[in-house]
């Protein structure tokens, strides 16, 4: 259904929300001008708003809903658990089962600590690395996002830089070294100079918060080798890539084992759970075995643990879905590439597995600097026109589109047709602008 079908209820809800919520939303990525639509329900690959409009969803919980909205296997198990209680704050057999499953799936997962969110996981992963190495400095990459905490929000992504000076604790920035993603020479040079002071290198193995940017050949291998050389730890932030690129995440996909990894999002198909996984000697820094305190009331709660078990069990039984989703993603990218060319639009499309993003630029997009060269104004028009066609993608150029198992061949073809119509509209707009400019 098109966005023009009616938005009266969403408008009223946004007016109510704006009275008591910052800009009417609980996360900045949910806002877009002039107002977001408000969702009533979702199933499969579609969301339905309060006005009765439906949208093909390519946000999918920013990657969390790998199997689709309201996936039956997960929902049935969660419903059964709810009748037994939602929170115990005492150990359960389900926690043991989940960590055993994680150990089987994730190459680096000798020992695991369950937490609640990806941000919590990356924050404590860095604390563990500092405690283990007795060093303070960390290296991160320009454009990589690891949660909104001071350790990694330094020059993180998409227009947060100017806000940091007044909000960040003194001294944090000086211990965080920022390097360009995919620059092998830069990482070798930095580690040669300060490697013996670096506790950890933290990286999104596939950058997914500056748009989609895969690693260049040898980049992840270089991170692993320089960490071994200097006694630093390699942290893979797999909050997005975990269970999405492969059952074992990017470390399985690229055959590189980090010292620590963080998982969230697709781990429980939309339920709030995350984990820190890593080498046994490193993870033993955590209390009560070690002296580094980390605790949480809701960690390992039975509802989210049940959802994670159901999700991972399904993925273990149906490993072929990764090939299927990648095939469908490639088909959509192929259609988009043809349409971009046919309409004479300058654009690059990056994709991997079941993830993709379009950049309106003629340049190769290989890091945050090149991503920022893309035409974000044109991307906003692309987003708005797709919304009118009944397709919802993340509103920001610096996010990623995600497929789920529910995006079947029919949906992919329908999406391709809708994108084709949108690109034709954009091409006509660009042509008009050129004509106006030439007259002037």
Automatic annotation (TrEMBL):
Keyword DNA damage: no
PROSITE patterns, sorted: AA_TRANSFER_CLASS_3
Residues annotated as signal peptide: none
Species of origin: Candidatus Nitrosocaldus cavascurensis
Cofactor dependence: pyridoxal 5'-phosphate
One GO location term (cellular component): cytoplasm
GO biological process: protoporphyrinogen IX biosynthetic process
Leading EC class: isomerase
Protein name as it appears in the record: Glutamate-1-semialdehyde 2,1-aminomutase
PANTHER family membership: GLUTAMATE-1-SEMIALDEHYDE 2,1-AMINOMUTASE, GLUTAMATE-1-SEMIALDEHYDE 2,1-AMINOMUTASE 1, CHLOROPLASTIC-RELATED
Modification N6-(pyridoxal phosphate)lysine occurs at: 265
Localization terms from the record: Cytoplasm
Catalytic activity: (S)-4-amino-5-oxopentanoate = 5-aminolevulinate
Pathway per the UniProt entry: Porphyrin-containing compound metabolism; protoporphyrin-IX biosynthesis; 5-aminolevulinate from L-glutamyl-tRNA(Glu): step 2/2
Gene name of this polypeptide: hemL
Pfam families, alphabetized: Aminotran_3
Entry's EC annotation: 5.4.3.8
Keywords, ordered alphabetically: Cytoplasm, Isomerase, Porphyrin biosynthesis, Pyridoxal phosphate
Family of this protein: Belongs to the class-III pyridoxal-phosphate-dependent aminotransferase family. HemL subfamily.
CDD domains: OAT_like
